[in-house]
Amino acid sequence: MSLAETARPAAAGEPGTLVEVQGLDRVFDLSRPWLNRLIERRGRIRLTAVDGVDFAIRRGETYALVGESGSGKSTIAKMVVGLLPPSGGSVTIGGTDVWAGRGRDEQRRMRRRIQMIFQDPFASLNPRWRVEAIVAEPIKVFDLVPDAGRRRERVGELLSLVGLDPRDGQKFPHEFSGGQRQRIAIARALASEPEFIVCDEPTSALDVSVQAQVLNLLRDLQKRLGLTYLFISHNLAVVRHVATRVGVLYLGRLVEEAPARALFAEPLHPYTRMLLEAVPDIDMEGIERQSIAGEIPNPINPPRGCHFHPRCPHAMDRCRAEVPPRYAVGEAGVRCFLYDPDAT
Amino acid sequence: MTPTLSVRNLRVEIPTRRGVLTAIDDLSFDIAPGEVLGVVGESGAGKSITGTAIIGLLEPPARIAGGEIRLAGERIDDLSADAMRRVRGRRIGMIFQDPLTSLNPLYRIGEQLAETILTHERLSQRAATDKARRLLEEVGIPAAGDRLSSYPHQFSGGMRQRVVIALALAADPELVVADEPTTALDVSVQAQIITLLKRLCAERGASVMLITHDMGVIAETADRVCVLYAGRLAEIGPVRDVVKRPQHPYTHGLMAAIPTLHGDPDETLRQIPGAMPRLDAIPPGCPFNPRCDFAYGRCGSERPEPLDAGKSRAACFLHDADAAEAPPADTVRAARAVGLEVPQKVAEAAR
Amino acid sequence: MAELADDKTRAVGTAPEPADTARPGMLARALDSDLFYSFRRSPVTVVSAVVALGLVLSAVFAPWIAPHNPFDPASLSILDSFLPPAWAEGGDPRFLLGTDDQGRDMLSTILYGMRISLAVGFASVIFAMLVGITLGLVAGYFGGFLDSAIMRVADVQLTFPAILIALLIDGAARALAGPRAYDEIVFGVLVFSIGLSFWVQYARTVRGSVLVEINKEYVLAARLIGLRASTIMFKHVLPNVLGPVLVIATINLALAIIIEATLSFLGVGVPPTQPSLGTLIRIGNDFLFSGEWWITIFPGIVLAVLALAVNLLGDWLRDALNPKLR
Asked: Are C15 and A174 a contacting pair at CB < 8 A?
């Protein structure tokens, strides 16, 4: 054993994997109560919101999950941060399983490292609390700054960090605009000094000029604090702007995953191509696009085989019967039989 | 040619306990026959209020306090509630963000369509039903004949919005006011609906007032675009010019703030500092001046009128060739550098 | 218009805005609120508030403002019994509203009686709130079996009229405690029996609001940092569901006073030695037909005015807190 090897510090600080999601499943039981089922002679109704999703996020990068309604993106976010138990599979952060049974202490340490920024800044701040109390809450809960005076200073620092005035702590959330409220939510997320932040549609409730402020702030904070983001969005243009790696979801399955540049330059899965084609863009005025057929099917009763086959221009018999596995194409992975190397 | 819709010096006020708020101030624009006018602005800019003022559905206490609205030359802002109800539906079709607000959940789609057709046209019940079926076919609903007897909840979101479009077009209106028609829909469905709306209105020669916050939708759909800021007109012009060569500093900032699928993704997005003022705190002079990079002396005290600027009109003093007070030379240089077409006369007057 | 109704339009100035006004005082904020504005705008409400406040204050300070102490046997004289009001023929200026069968001053007895009526009213509403809010929070927050169990009990409870429940409990307590001991616990029994018939409304309202609130993202944010369920319920959710609770409490206060009066009138409430408004009406009722109307009419008027004023306040509060009607 060489000296160099023994002196090597533990994984911390290395540009390795921080978050690993494996075989994640989530099934919701939407059945009516037992008595109603018995009388109405109906079976159980199950909705598979997330179906065998795998991905890994490296330290310091932004992994984006893109999808339309019913894609399961928000469900995944909740399972990753520990708000919703998965039906199957695992989520590990820095080598610790988020959902394995552990002691209260370890759970607390875990929770401090993960934070979340929500979609609606009008619902994510308690309307009856002053901003200072909102931002100070995680600091108090994790006992990071025990002294009340010092804690107040820390809140002031956090507010300055996100571009607000430290004196804004005295105000109530309703005194702020949407963009400012999202800044407050970001300050609260940073209060527990996390390494990993899940951003669930953080700008979809904001106006474009304010959206730019928040996106730039998130990017700036990532650089300064070395944060890792899981960025959930339905807006491809926004994702392209923030993501290092992108996963595309369709009805609970990850259909394509690739480095951001590759995905936008050369989308592989027919669904990804369709999505990119459909985004209205200010640079594409006057272009008559061909309409894409169909809508997202009901997730309670999704199509067999590949979920996308009814809308896919390349659908084959095989797509209607089998679920495509993940095929590696360069740095990307895609679940589509078009990329099956053994196909004839 | 008489414009389909002509709005002149429209002023909408909302009396509140802290005083009267001016939601729309001195707004004028025209929509030519067959034209699609996009109305854009951020939340609170007054775009939806403009729409509801035109169709006579302002929610009290908001009221039209000045100006006039003409539909094909006839004044409609002073009509009685009854007369206005006849204008809506027959001469102005409406499409809202949530299709369920336009559809009665208790009636079958066919009944609702036939009823709208019958109130505006003398037809037999049978002929009306037949027309309803043709309309559904036109908006792309498969098996239209069978779907006539379906209820609104039996349709998916995209299909519902198609039904609403059929309903809006049922009486062959001259103008369709569409307020955020695709905002509630998924991206893949959004494109279908926009294409459909544009095609059907073009076929019928109906004018469209398309209200949305999404510049992408406007860029692909509208002929001209009207940009609102804090209830005032910021810029109006042909869509290509407004998008590619915006002449108002606000429009310029707005376009640069939109992330696109082209260009360099690593480039920092341009951001406009601050947020749009609340209606009770609109600054004096140009409402945009506290956030504007090019603001100078008079911007803080005088209200700019829309002025010719390239192919558009923009409410910005940088385009005021006859001004007594010229902007500083640095400002003119900076404005020209980002593409604002400051007139030569202004540039020469600048020190 | 939808845009304006939306809170989002309340955009505030520019991003780093100086907080020029340091923490405005509670009173200043209250006086500037929409609630106070709608209060000032409604004359009926202002009058109701003044009347209700006046009655409550005169009840609280009865020992200091009442001209006589009706419970001091030494000061009573049988010679003063059945005196009509001061302005009527045969009236005595010492007794403004006349006297009752034992020569007690009516005005003083009413002031003292209102004390008891209000005390029972407030106490039973507070008791109902404590039980109802707690059960409502638990049912809404945890859901599942707890929710079903609590709400089924509530459903069953609702099928019994409030007065019947109160009569039942009162009867049971009387039988168990015996007449002497009963007099000592009568106040508690009344509060318990009236309060018990009210908790269902609080539980249902709170449960409904909790179901809305727990899906809001601020609750998710609190769960995210691992707060205990009880902390989230009481610190985060509770303050946001209190609005409708306040409305019910006000309307219930009027109802509780009336139920207490009804029980006392039926003879199962407070004893005649400590008369409430209801007891006074019952006592007076015996003399109504022999011409001594003032013994029952004056307590009756006070009861009606008090209940009406409190009810009108409740109505106003309900409308003012309902964003749809504003």
From this structure: no
**CATH architecture of the domain formed by B229-349:** 3-Layer(aba) Sandwich (3.40)
Question: In the structure, what pLDDT confidence band is assigned to residue A59 with cuts at 50, 70 and 90?
Answer: very high
Backbone angles phi, psi at B245, to 5 degrees: -130, 65
Residue C10 belongs to a domain? no
Q: Is the pLDDT of residue C196 over 60?
A: yes
Domain B5-222: CATH class, spelled out: alpha beta
Residues of B numbered 56-115 whose beta carbons fall under 8 angstroms of chain C's beta carbons: which are they? 57-59, 62
Q: Closest residue of C to A182, CA-based? A: C15
* Residue B153 pLDDT greater than 70, yes or no: yes
CB nearest A241 (choices: B159, B189, B265): B265
A139 at the C interface (CB within 8 A)? no
Structure tokens at C9: 């339009």
Mutate: best of B163, B260, B267, B288, partner A, most A CBs <10 A: B260
Report residue C90's pLDDT band, with 50, 70 and 90 as the boundaries.
Answer: confident
Question: Which tokens go with C133?
Answer: 């809010």
Q: What is the CATH number of the domain that holds C163?
A: 1.10.3720.10
B159 near B189, Cβ under 8 Å?
Answer: no
Residue A234 inside a domain? The answer is yes
Identity of the residue in C9, C12, C15 whose CB atom sits nearest the CB atom of B43? C9
| Chains interfacing with A (3 or more CB pairs < 8 Å) | B, C
Predicted confidence band of residue B155 (pLDDT cuts 50, 70, 90)? confident
Q: Is residue A118 part of a domain?
A: yes
Contacts of A175 in chain C (CB under 8 A): 12
Q: What gap in Å lies between CA A279 and CA B188, rounded to an integer?
A: 8
Interchain CB contact of C225 with A (< 8 Å): yes
% of chain C residues with pLDDT over 90: 22
CA C201 to each of CA C142, C147, C159, C260: distance values in angstroms, whole numbers, following the listed order: 19, 15, 13, 19
Overall domain count for chain A = 1
Residue A148 lies in a domain: yes
Integer Rg of chain B from CA: 22
Q: What is the pLDDT of residue A344?
A: 64
Using CA atoms, how far apart are residues C206 and B169, in angstroms rounded to an integer? 46
Most confident of A27-36, A177-186, C286-295: A177-186
From the CB of residue B341, how many other CB atoms can be counted at a distance below 10 Å?
18
Residues A106-119 have a mean pLDDT of: 88
> What domain range includes position C234?
43-67+80-321
Residue C34 lies in a domain: no
Report the distance separating Cα B131 and Cα B170, nearest Å: 8
Q: Tell me the pLDDT band of C12, cut-offs 50, 70 and 90.
A: very low
Average confidence score pLDDT of chain B:
88
Give the closest-approach CA distance of B320 to chain A in angstroms: 26
B163: which chain A residues are within 8 Å (Cβ-Cβ)? none
- Domain boundaries for CATH 3.40.50.300 within chain B: 5-222, 229-349
pTM here is 0.83
Confidence of residue A290 (pLDDT cuts 50, 70, 90): low
Domain-embedded: residue A192: yes
| CB contact at 8 A, A21 and A50 | no
CA distance C211 to chain B (A): 24
Bridge-based pairing state of the strands A88-93 and A17-29: antiparallel
Note whether residue C303 is domain-resident.
yes
B49 vs C1, C15, C37: nearest CB: C1
Q: Identify the pLDDT of residue B273.
A: 85
Q: Which of A213, A264, A285 sits opposite B271 (nearest CB)?
A: A213
pLDDT for the residue A15: 56
Six-digit token pair at A12?
A: 């911390």
| β-strands B175-179, B92-95 pairing | parallel
Total number of domains constituting chain C: 1
Summarize the confidence of residues A213-241 as an average pLDDT: 93
* Subunit contact B191:A280, Cβ cutoff 8 A: yes
Domain that holds residue A146: 15-250
For residue A87, the domain's CATH number is 3.40.50.300
Chain B: partners with 3+ C-beta pairs within 8 Å? A, C
